[in-house]
Design brief:
With about 375 residues, the protein is mainly α. The chain is about 70% helix and about 0% strand. The protein is built from 15 helices and two strands.
Length: about 375
């Protein structure tokens, strides 16, 4: 065990500082995106984000001080709690702001169990793979890891939440790759995905299929393409340095829908231009670099895989969020980490940072 004073000495203050900076900037952008709103739910977005940020930072520090290896012995309970939360959604789930996914539970405040599960699955899958680090050449190990992930992923898919399901799949791939996934297994799973694609398509909701068909052929549904078109206008009109904070016409004119969540990168680009957008992406890239450093220097496979899992979901959500704002990929509803409005999303991201900090603080000495 490492004494707390040693932990603070080895604490990654760069990662902590950049995290604080991104959260603060996110609050400012949510304020800009909701300024002048008459919808009561939008008017509370800024104070809600601040409250969740404070709670998340406390949680992050607590996880940093805790030895992450203690979680290994609790992995069975963590997995059961994760599945139980997702099952509760099936019976008591309420709709989010978009009105298409019943993925929240109302506990006085709305909580999204899928976001909580995103962090919990990293812990349990890291434990599973760490114990089988030398068995990754066996197909049975890969299949069992898929079953381990598949139960919560299936519960999320039927909410329905395709975006978060894909996040789970990406996290699984990165973690098993880091654990030693063989190339021959990759070819097999590509074949399985190709065969199962029609089945997945048939189980998707109409709005999910519409997002994909609209991305492929915008002319097929001009109304569905409206927000993507407005996002592209916002990004293009920002130019090099933007129009200035809270003065963007697309934002203030409310041409952009869900501009405080899904399309917040368009608001950033309009108000701070190409330079502002690249600075934000550069800061997130720095976060990823520090977490990957933690993975490289972790004292054991469990800690290393936790870091890879946290880096995976931050990277994937960032690329997906920016990509859909630029019209490069279909709209998924995923948030931009640290920036977008969303209490549970922010909590899960900060919990991930806390786990990474715990690993980094206990890194191997060079």
């Amino acid at each position: 065990m490492i004494h707390s004073e040693h932990i603070w000495r080895r604490f990654d203050y760069v990662l902590f500082g950049v995290t604080i900076l991104l959260i603060a900037f996110g609050v400012l952008m949510i304020r800009s995106a909701t300024q002048g709103a008459i919808d009561p739910t939008l008017m509370t977005r800024v104070p809600d984000q601040i409250r969740f940020a404070i709670l998340g930072l406390i949680f992050m520090v607590a996880l940093s001080l805790m030895d992450y290896r203690l979680l290994s012995g609790l992995q069975s309970w963590i997995y059961l709690i994760m599945v139980a939360l997702l099952v509760l959604v099936l019976f008591f789930g309420v709709e989010g702001d978009g009105g298409v996914t019943q993925g929240w539970i109302n506990l006085g405040i709305r909580v999204q169990p899928a976001e909580i599960a995103k962090v919990l699955i990293i812990i349990t899958l890291a434990h599973f793979l760490a114990r089988r680090y030398h068995e990754m050449d066996r197909l049975s190990t890969i299949i069992r890891s898929l079953i381990h992930l598949g139960i919560p992923a299936a519960l999320i898919f039927i909410q329905p939440d395709l975006g978060m399901t894909i996040v789970f799949a990406f996290v699984w791939f990165i973690m098993v790759w880091a654990a030693g996934l063989r190339l021959r297994h990759i070819a097999l799973f590509v074949l399985i995905m190709a065969i199962s694609a029609p089945v997945v398509w048939s189980q998707m909701e109409d709005y999910q299929r519409s997002r994909i068909t609209t991305f492929i052929s915008p002319q097929s549904d001009p109304d569905s393409y409206y927000n993507i078109r407005q996002a592209l206008i916002s990004v293009g009109s920002g130019g090099t340095v933007g129009k200035g904070y809270s003065v963007g016409s697309q934002n203030k004119g409310r041409f952009l829908r869900v501009r405080h969540t899904d399309f917040i990168f368009s608001v950033i680009s309009e108000e701070f231009g190409f330079v502002g957008g690249m600075v934000v992406l550069g800061l997130i890239a720095l976060v990823l670099m520090r977490i990957l450093y933690g993975a490289q220097m972790a004292p054991d496979a469990f800690g290393s895989l936790i870091c890879y899992g946290v880096a995976a979901f931050i990277f994937f959500q960032t690329v997906t969020s920016v990509g859909m704002n630029l019209g490069l990929i279909p709209v998924t509803g995923l948030t931009l980490p640290f920036i977008s409005s969303g209490g549970t999303s922010l909590l899960s991201t900060l919990a991930g940072i806390g786990l990474a900090e715990s690993v980094i603080a206990r890194r191997r000495r060079i």
